[in-house]
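Ticket 4471: requesting a sanity check on a complex prediction with magnesium ion. Repro inputs:
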Amino acid sequence: MSDETFSAAAPGRVNLIGEHIDYNGGMVLPAALSIGLQIDLTPRADRVVTVSANDYDEIASRTLDETASGHWSDPALGAVQRAHALGLISGGADIAVRSTIPQGSGLSSSAALIVAILKAARSAKGADISDTHIAVEARAVENEFMGVPCGIMDQMAVSLATPGTAMALNTKTLTHSIVDLPKDHAIVVIHSGLTRKLTDGRYGALKGECDTAKAYFGTDDLCALDPADIAASDLDQPYRKRALHCATEHPRVLDAIDALKSGDIAALGAAMNASHASMRDDFEMSLPAIDALVADAVTLGADGARLTGGGFGGCIVAVVAKDQQHAWLDALLNRHPKARFIGAV
Ligand code: ADP
Ligand code: MG
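Returned structure tokens:
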């Protein structure tokens, strides 16, 4: 039995804009955060998988033959199983997790965990697997082992994003480019104080509603549809609204990329505000407390703000002038005592 330990890290990520369109044919714009997760992987000769984590008191003991059980160690187990199936490790593994990414908050703790385990297993084998391939395998763990029907954004962002920049990602081709973030404005991430689990079914329900819209329009790519055609169609609600969100969100991502490239913060903020309205009204993935947090963020001086992540809780992201950031944050957290500052890029 090898007792050599292999380590890997992955950051949390915030999505600036482009929500729930990474499985509907769209472009997305995530950025890596300075909070992150590190794992140590020690391969085992038997089929046991143990997981210890600074966020949990117990050490989980599982086996390569188990399915997901709703336990916190499921994503780690799924990642080790995938590493084993790919031939990166020949048995189970002992996994130790150290993380500063809040869980269930739309900052991709699950993707960071799975990607980091797969990267550690890659170095255990010395395998020539690209970071994009790691992301694809990590998505398969969420889709197939966890039963979370997510797109590819989170895994690509945490596997490949360059810290301090945004990643313009085409989720159909997986081509991506770096977009610089503004110099005089901060991208601020604030936790609403409300937590959700992607496995709780609401994410899957929204995905299913998009699938109904795809079947109606005979396309896999809701983002390529003309919003006017969707609005004029006789597709039932809520499917029509779901498709409308996708078809309007994709051009907003393109606007945001252009705005960042030209330094037009007002245009970036407008795209973010419109994105939030669409998530609230058409995709119906927000909550009243989050709508209030987003509205106050703008009222108090942000150029734009929106819910970020899978929805129904978690974080908001706002763009705010760096010289106003501290006063703005104090005022916002004063009005929303349950909210807390996570970080800024
Ligand atoms: P997120 O938006 O943070 O990705 P998810 O619900 O998709 O939220 O994933 C959260 C799950 O990932 C947790 O329930 C747990 O199973 C796993 N996880 C995340 N961070 C850790 C950690 N630090 N230690 C152990 N498991 C973790
Ligand atoms: Mg997740």
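Notes from triage: The pocket of adenosine-5'-diphosphate (ligand 1) is lined by residues 53, 55, 72, 74-75, 97, 99, 103-111, 113, 197-198, 309 (CB under 6 Å). Leaving this open until the requester confirms.
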